[in-house]
Each structure stands twice: as C-alpha cells, then as structure tokens.
Design brief:
The complex is a heterodimer of chains A (522) and B (246). Chain A is an alpha/beta fold and 522 residues long. Chain A has 3 domains: 3-125 and 224-288, Periplasmic binding protein-like II (D-Maltodextrin-Binding Protein, domain 2), CATH 3.40.190.10; 127-222, Periplasmic binding protein-like II (D-Maltodextrin-Binding Protein, domain 2), CATH 3.40.190; 305-520, MetI-like fold. Chain A is 55% helix and 11% strand. Chain A has helices at residues 3-23, 31-38, 67-79, 93-98, 113-116, 159-166, 179-185, 196-202, 232-247, 250-257, 278-288, 305-344, 347-362, 365-375, 389-415, 418-426, 431-446, 448-461, 473-483, 488-520, and strands at 40-45, 55-56, 64-65, 82-87, 104-105, 120-121, 126-135, 151-155, 170-174, 191-195, 211-223, 226-227. In chain A, the strands form 3 sheets. In chain A, strands 4-1-5-12-6 form a 5-stranded mixed sheet. The longest helix of chain A has 40 residues, at 305-344. Chain B has a single domain, classed as 3-Layer(aba) Sandwich (Rossmann fold), CATH 3.40.50.300. In chain B, the strands form 2 sheets. Chain B has a 6-stranded mixed sheet, with helices on both faces. Chain B has a 4-stranded antiparallel sheet with strand order 2-1-4-5, covered by helices on one side. The longest helix of chain B is centred in the last third of the chain and has 16 residues, at 175-190. The two termini of chain B are 34 Å apart. Classes of the chains: A alpha/beta (522), B alpha/beta (246). The interface between A and B is medium-sized, with 22 and 28 residues.
C-alpha cells in the first residue's frame, strides 16, 4: 500500500468515526437481495495486480482473465447471477467493498486479523506460500535467514513483507510485481520474496534466466473473498457456493489449469467435508500423474502488441482528456471568484478564500481525492454524497487546481496597471463593474500562458485519480503492461507518446501566446 | 458648479494638501500650475474622490463629497459625483482589450444604460470631433500617444460631464504630439466646456485659461487671470516658479 494512501486512510478513519457517531447506525441494504434484483453480482479487483490472479487478456486486452476470474465466474453460476467485473484500485478494495461500490472483493486479499476488521471473509479459495528468488550468481543466500542485513524486495503490506522483516532483512516494498524482479536483476536488491503464483508468472526461469528460485515455498497464508460488514447473507451464499466448488473438484481444476495446485491446497477441504471428496480426489489423481498442469490458460497473442493494446490506450487517453478538461473548467470557474475575493472582498470573505487556497495548496491532491470519494459518503446529509468515480475525480482535481488558478488570476489581476481601475472608477463604474469589465478581461489574456502550463500539468496529474478506481491512461498502461510483460517497455513508450501528443500542442500554444503578449502590449 | 473648501490630504508624513479652497463656474477653464509635488494633481483627484481626502469638502453641483466615503458602501453617491466630473489621465489609461469605439461607449452603455446604437452614434460624433473617426475600430496599442489621449478625451466627454478634469494631459507625449492634443482642448474651451487642467504648458495656459491657480507646498499661493499671474505675479513663490521655467 502506498504511503500517501496510508496517510489518506488514517485521515479517513478519523472522518469515518466522527461521521458514524454523528449519523448513528442505520441498517445497510442487503447486498444479496440487491444483486438478485439486479441480476448481477459485482466483483471488484485491480487488473493491475496481474497474472495469474486477474489481468487483461494479452490477446483481447478489453477483457480480464485469471484464476480469480474463473472462480468468480463459477461462483456466479452457482448463485444464478451474471458476473460484472468492476476495475478498482488494489489499495482501496476494502473501502470500495465497504461503501457498496461492489458486492465482493477477490484479488489476492490475505486473510489476517487486520483484514478481518475491514470486512467479512469467506473460507479461503487458495492457500499461498512465499517463494524466495535470487540472482543465479548468488551463493550466499540459501534460506530466508540468510537475508539478515541484506536488501530484499516484496509487495507492501503483505505476509511476505512481515516474513522478511522477521528475518532481519532490509525490506524494500513495491507497488507492482514486475519491479522487484527488475531491481533484483539490476543488483539493486539481493532477493525477492513473493507469493508463489506471482513467482510462477513473473520470475519464470525461461523469461528471467538471470534469476533462480531458492528452496521450497515457505510460510502459509489464505486468500479469501471479502464482503462488506453486515452482509452476512451474501457471505453465507458465497461460502456455500465456494464449498460446493471445493467438494466437487471445480476449484481444484481451476487451480490446476493455472498451475497453482499443490499438496498444500488439500487444506482447503474442511475435516467434516472429507466424506464428499470425489471430485477433489480426481483432481489430485491427475495432478499426481504429473500431467502438464499448465494447460496454457492464456494463448500466445496472434496480433501485434500495438494492434491489441492501441485502441485501449487511446480510449484511456480520451478519459484522461475528459477528466482534464472538466477539472480545468471547474478550476477556472472557481479560481476566478477566489482570486477576486482574495483581492477585493471584505475581510471575512477574503479570509475564507485565503483559507481555501492554503488548505487545497497545502495538502496532497491524492488525500483530497480520498476524502471526497471515500470520506464524503460518511458525512451527514446534505454532504453525505456518494459520488461516482468520474464526478469525484473531476471535483477533487478541480477543487485542488482552483487554488492554483486562483493564485495565477490574482497575480494577473495585480499586474493590470492601477490606472485602469482608476479610469474605470472615474467613468462612474462601481468596483465590481471595474473588476468584471476592465480588470478581469485584461487578466484573462495575461494569464493564458501560465494557465495553459497548468493545464499541461493537470493532464499528467490525472494519473492520480486511478486511486479512486478510474481507468485513465497511466492506470491502463499498468494494467496492460502487467498482462503483457514482454511489451512492458513498448507500452510505456506508447503511453509517453500519447501524453506528449496531448501536452505538446498546448505547450506550443502557450509559448506562442507568451511571445505574442510580450511583444504586442504597450 | 465645482466648489471645495478646507481640503487636506496627507500621505504618511507628507502634507500634500494643507487646506485649499476654490470655486469653478460653468464655462470656465482653470489651469493649475506649480512645481511638481505641490499638490495640484492630488487636488484634481480629490475632486472626483479617486483620492479620498482627510478633511474639508467638495461640492459638485448637487453632490457633496466628505471624508470617509467608501467605494462599496457609497458607490451610488460616488457615481453621481463622477458623472459630473470626467477625467483625463496623464497616461491615457485607455482599456487595451477594447477598440477605440469600445472604449468610448463602454461607460455610456454600462454605467448610464444608454442603448448601444445611440451610444455609438454619439461616440462617432465625438471621435470625429477629436479627428479620429477612421480609428474607431483600432486597438489603443495601434495608436500614437497623442491619438490615445484624444480618444481618452472623447471617452470622458461621451459621459456628458459638467466639467473635465485633466491631469497633465500632454506630459507623457513626445513633443511633436503635444500640439494635436492642445488643439482639441483649445477647441473645447472655445465651445464653453468647463475644464480644470493641471499643466506644465505655460503658453497653453496663458492662451486658454480664464483663471490660473498657483500651487506651492500644499497651498494655492496665488490666483488670478492668466494675464495677472503671468505678467504681474504678486507672490514671490510664483515669481520663483515662473523664473525657473524660463
């Protein structure tokens, strides 16, 4: 979990507590009834999490695949509902489940004492352990204990991180599962400890010949499906469906298809279920025969990477433009009155405008997005708005940038010669008329270059909104890049080119306006 | 028509006006002369309250100005005063985002509420009078300083003020452009336009002004007809000032 996100949560926790006291407890809607009425069950996960959990199909990147997708599909079949995939940000899945944006979360979520406080968990659907990976040239590290004092990488907030810390390693945490192995190859760290499924897909020896697995998998944890607190009926329904999948061997065959079946998975079966294990035994028999367990769940792509991913990157770029334009419109619409208030209003209004500017400039925009998206629903009416992600993104970025635009327009207004204001007053205009008809039009022209520069900055800042589950360009790049590792760099370059195509013409225009204004004024 | 008494203004430690009185009748042209920093421009700006004064009072027709008026609270009152006294600035202060015609009709339309067509007709007549009809659609930045100042005069006149307050209208101009502005002002004077002019153009003051007021250190030290003041100055300070010019 990212550090800024963590800061967001702590602030949010305070807000939620305060708000729930203010609001009192009201009974949540029953998610199972609502899903039945809708006919769909909404599953939330982060496709950026990558293979083999849930990831963009490299062949048809517009759909997701993975062993969790297969499990979700079977669960929905059991419940007689259609599956709806909702792309989320991994760091905030619990909160999205909690606010009812999705019915359940399933995305390599570890069942721990801490995570149990955030939601209700079903029985586990996979028992994971950790695999240690080092460079082939490494001969000092044979066991976890050898990492004491050495640099080791893993994903933040996981069992693996706790194990590394217990072993005395210097831990470096990552947000993605490709980066630790990259750093390992580059000798920036000495070892990587990650969940076996990740290791199997991102540290295969044929793809990364410079790396080697050390020893057997170690440690043990459970992946579970999470539903919102209070949704006992949905929990029970999912639990029963999962139980049937365990007993008739469907779960085992899904795991086998993804090369995830091993002897440890026997523990998925509860002792009292031992009598009805026909399907599971069958699965075990096939596994024991040493049949090629990975039946190529994902086929080799037939089309070029650009043909497969290009349209998706373009549609994500459109989302980036949409968010940027709407946010900037809001930022200017709000920034101009703020600037006027700071310069010309009475002391109270001027003070409020100053506080606004300082607060929004002085706190991270990511935190502001968190509060708007996850915090506001907890507030008492009429502030307790549950905004859809796009509205929350535009509101968050717009409110934040308004503070910056206000300062630009303030500078612009101050740069208008004093004689202009006097001439307007001398002609009988009121202050407000003078501001509106004489000062603002001149300030508007003067600030075109800095405002355009800000718009370019905003264009890139939109990548922040992926924290509230919007698939804009950067997020889309990560999702696609993790599903098609061999084209990760190509995709990065293509994404950069798209950003450049969006921002460069604006920069050019700003520069031209700057020259024109510098030369054309007396 | 314009009357003021006991007007005092202080900027920090500096007494710019130490209590001045005066009266200007309809049709008169009054030239304010004196060394720089003697308070003549400040008095002009007090007359339409662009410069709020500390003591005394100013009466413009039926509108009385006193210390302590507020731009927001007393906006209507100040507007009535300013409609009676149009102002022309040393630096022209035309609105650069508007055309010449736009500058002239801006206040008639948005302050007086004149229909645009009517305001334009009137503005074009005034532009013709200052010799700039063909520049109606130009931007201020495309005009010479002398042309800009003539537009500024037309802009002030278009509000039909009782009097024009002109604050060193030719001081920012290249010498060869001064004449065209003074010609316009001379024409206005001959038509009976009431004007109060802060000026360093003594020849112009002599020819056009009915009255000349001499400022020194915050006081009006001498006043009289142009002939009296320039030919037979009574005050030593006037003589000093005139001697320095020569």
């Amino acid at each position: 979990m990212r550090r800024a996100a963590l800061a967001g949560w702590s602030l949010l926790a305070v807000l939620v507590v305060v708000a729930s006291i203010a609001r009192g407890q009201d009974a949540p809607r029953d998610a199972l009834d609502a899903a039945r009425a809708r006919g769909t069950l909404r599953w939330g996960a982060d496709a950026e999490g990558g293979a083999p959990y849930v990831f963009a199909d490299p062949n048809e990147p517009e759909r997701v695949v993975g062993f969790e997708q297969d499990i979700a599909q079977e669960l929905c079949k059991e419940l007689g509902l259609a599956l709806e995939f909702v792309p989320l940000n991994w760091a905030s899945i619990y909160q999205d489940v909690g606010r009812g944006a999705v019915d359940f979360g399933m995305n390599g979520l570890e069942v721990t004492d801490e995570s149990r406080k955030l939601g209700l968990f079903t029985r586990p659907y996979y028992l994971f352990s950790e695999q240690l990976v080092v460079r082939v040239t490494e001969d000092r590290i044979r066991r976890l204990e050898d990492l004491a004092g050495r640099q080791a990488g893993t994903l933040g907030g996981t069992l693996a991180e706790r194990m590394l810390r217990d072993a005395g390693a210097v831990v470096r945490t990552y947000d993605g599962q490709i980066e630790p192995y990259e750093d390992l190859e580059l000798s920036r760290i000495d070892a990587v400890l990650l969940d076996v499924p990740i290791t199997k897909y991102y540290a295969r020896h044929d793809q990364r010949p410079a790396l080697r697995w050390v020893g057997d998998p170690i440690g043990r944890g459970e992946y579970g499906i999470v539903v919102a607190p209070g949704q006992e009926r949905l929990l029970e329904a999912l639990d029963e469906a999962l139980g049937r999948m365990v007993r008739d061997g469907r779960l085992a065959s899904i795991l086998r298809r993804w090369d995830l079946w091993d002897d440890r998975q026997w523990a998925l079966v509860r002792p009292d279920e031992a009598g009805a294990l026909g399907g599971l035994f069958e699965a075990a028999r096939v596994a024991a025969q040493g049949a090629p367990t990975i039946a190529a769940p994902v086929q080799e792509p037939s089309r070029s990477w650009l043909a497969r991913h290009g349209p998706l990157l373009l549609s994500a770029a459109r989302m980036t433009i949409l968010i940027s334009v709407l946010s900037m419109a809001l930022a200017i619409g709000l920034g101009v009155p703020l600037a006027v208030a700071r310069l010309y209003a009475g002391p109270v209004v001027r003070g409020l405008a100053t506080v606004y500017v300082e607060v929004f400039r002085g706190t991270p925009v990511m935190l502001q997005l968190f509060v708007i998206y996850y915090g506001m629903p907890h507030l008492p009416p009429p502030f307790g708005l549950e905004l859809p992600p796009l509205a929350a993104a535009v509101l968050g970025l717009g409110l934040n940038y308004a503070a910056y635009e206000a300062e630009i327009y303030r500078a612009g207004l101050q740069a208008v010669p004093k004689g202009q204001f006097e001439a307007a007053l001398a002609l009988g205009m009121t202050r407000w008329q003078a501001i509106r008809r004489v000062l603002l039009p001149q300030a508007f022209r003067m600030v075109i270059p800095p405002v355009t520069n800000d718009f370019v900055a905003l264009l890139k800042d939109t990548s922040i909104v992926s924290v509230i589950a919007i698939q804009e360009l950067t997020k889309r790049f990560y999702v696609l890049g993790r599903s098609d590792v061999s084209h990760f760099v190509h995709l990065a370059a293509a994404t950069a080119v798209l950003y450049l195509l969006m921002s460069y013409p604006l920069s050019m225009w700003a520069r031209r306006m700057e020259r024109k204004l510098a030369g054309g004024e007396r | 028509m314009i009357e003021f008494s006991g007007v005092k203004k202080r900027f920090g430690d500096l007494d710019v006006l130490r209590g001045v009185d005066g009266r200007v009748e309809k049709g008169e042209v009054v030239a304010l002369i004196g060394p720089s920093g003697s308070g003549k421009s400040t008095l002009l700006r007090c007359l339409n309250y662009l410069c709020p004064f500390d003591d005394g009072k100013v009466v413009l027709g039926d509108v009385e100005l006193r210390p302590g008026l507020d731009e927001r609270r007393d906006a209507a009152h100040l507007r009535r005063a300013r409609l009676r006294a149009g102002m022309v600035f040393q630096q022209f202060n035309l609105f650069p985002h508007l055309t010449v015609l736009g500058n002239v009709i801006e206040a008639p339309v948005h302050v007086k509420g004149l229909p645009r067509a009517e305001a334009e007709q009137k503005a074009l007549r005034l532009l013709e009078r200052v010799g700039l009809l063909e520049k109606a659609d130009a931007r201020p930045a495309e005009l010479s300083g002398g042309q800009q100042q003539r537009v500024a005069i037309a802009r002030a006149l278009c509000m039909e003020p009782d009097a024009l307050l002109l604050d060193e209208p030719t001081s920012a101009l290249d010498p060869q452009l001064v004449g065209e502005v003074l010609n316009v002002l001379t024409g206005l004077a001959s038509e009976g336009q009431t004007m109060i002019i802060v000026t360093h153009e003594m020849r112009f003051a002599r020819q056009v002004a009915n009255h000349v007021w001499v400022f020194d250190q915050g006081y009006i030290v001498e006043r009289g007809t142009a002939e009296q003041v320039f030919e037979r100055p009574a005050e030593a300070r006037t003589k000093d000032f005139l001697a320095h010019l020569a």
